[in-house]
Structures are given as structure tokens and as C-alpha cells.
Amino acid sequence: MSELWGVVAAAASSALGGTSIAATRYLVGHLDPLAIGSFRFGIGCLLLAPVALLGDRSWPDRRDWLQTAGLGLLFFALFPILFNASLIHTSSARGALALSTLPLLSLVVGAALGRERLTARKTAGVLIAMAGVGFALLSGLGHAPPQAWRGDLLMIAAALCMALYGIWSKPVIGRCGPIPFTTVAMAVGAAALILISLLRGSFEAVAQFAVPQWSAALYLGVIGAALTFYLWAFALGKASPTSVAVTVTVNPVTASLVAAALLNEPIGWNLVIGIVVVGIGIWLATTDGQGVRASG
């Protein structure tokens, strides 16, 4: 049951993450990637901090400080830079598809680090889910900006950061809880992004913001950071990294729906079939009870 709740939380996080892709795709036309990350994780950290202070779980132990800070820089500084920069060059659909390589990367990296065993069922589930994503986005993949491959590669690099974070953070989350860990890690990443943004003058464009830009920035902070990454950390505390990662295939579906509504990016009839295939893949990958090893 614990694994199931972890998968449900991860799927909810991934669905919300898909809406964040569309919001980021909108905002990159008005603000540089560093400043977008600063707003997203700065607001997210401010919202999570009171919850962490009022909770009954401990903060990361002294032995975990260096690892927590390093993971914060990896996931809440480097990841958003790569993620946001990728959406300058590619569409929401292609970016989401590139991000959906996460479960495969998690599976391979987890096996290489000895955290998870490769099993036929889990591998098949991951590949089926990724195939479902590709089919769901088939109609939108042909409408790519020039040099979209640059954005695709940047998003795959972001997915690798996410895979490493998922594997390395699980033991620390188990010791202190998802909210304290996420708050501290997010604070480290946000501080780095804000400092670099100030030095680069990245916030100058904010003076031109109107209601739509402020709404997108607030949405990214409240939903795209605080809620999304709390759910992701909660999931990592309950389920294996690959079981959590495979739910990221939900992300492109919600990204496509929001992008179609707000950015007029096309979707086709194949979306419904793709959703069904994604669901089958997630079920296969997350009901394999033999592939997880204890980590700690």
C-alpha cells in the first residue's frame, strides 16, 4: 500500500509538472531561464518553509547537510536552467517527450549504482509508457521550431539530473521526511539561482510584467514548485526511484493539453490512445515487486 500511495503522489506530481512545462514555455518569451527558476523555487521555498517549521519531522541531520546541499544545486539550480533553456528551442510537446526519458534513465542509472535490479517486466513497462508518450504526441512533434534538437538534448540532460536526484535523495528523505528535505534542498537551489540572476541582471525584464506574466510566475512557484516537488519527494519516500520516475510519462499528456489550450500547439486523436498505452506501461512497471533493493 505504501508503494501505491507513492505512485499516486508521483502521478499527481507529474500531471502538475506537465502544466508547468506549458507555463514555462509561455514565460521564456518574457524572462530568462535563470530568473524563471529563481521565481519558481524562491516562491516554492517560501511556501514550504512554514509547513516544514510546523511539522514534527526533523531537519536533515548534520551528516546529510553536504548531500542535501549538493542535491539542491543539482535539482533546484542546474535542472531548472537546463529545463527552462530547452523550452527556448523546442515545443512543449517535444520538451515533454524528451523529459519522458527519465524512467529509462532512472532504470539504467539505478541498476548501475546497485539501487535497483533490472527486470523484464519493469523494463517493458518503462518502454511501453515511453512509446505511449511518443504516440500521444505524434501530431505535435512535426511542428517543431528551428534547431529544436538543441532543446531536446537540453531536456534529456535535465532528465538525467532528475534521475540522479531521485536515486540519491531517497535515503535522506527516509531519515528526515519529504517536506524538511525538499525545503532545504529547494532553498539552496533557489539561493544559487537568485544570486546568479542578480549578477547577470536577469530580473530587469520583470519591470515589463503584466498580469499574465505575474500569473505564470506565481503559478510556477505555488503549483509548479511547492506542490509538485513536495508530492515528488513524498513519492520518493514511499516507492522505488523507477516506479516514481515512470509516472513522468503523464507529464507530456497534461503539457500537451495545456499547450493546446493556451499556446495553440496542436494535438490529435492519437492522444487518447497514447494515454491508455501510458497507463498500461505505468501499471506494468509499478506492479513489479521484485525489482527494488533497499537503499540507505
From TrEMBL:
Residues 4-136, 150-286 form the EamA domain. It is a multi-pass membrane protein. This is Threonine/homoserine efflux transporter RhtA. It is found in: Membrane. The chain crosses the membrane at residues 33-53, 65-83, 95-113, 125-142, 148-167, 179-199, 211-232, 244-263, 269-286. InterPro entries: AA-Vitamin_Transporters (IPR050638), EamA_dom (IPR000620), EmrE-like (IPR037185). Keywords: Membrane, Transmembrane, Transmembrane helix. Belongs to the EamA transporter family. It comes from Bosea lupini. One of its GO terms (cellular component) is membrane.
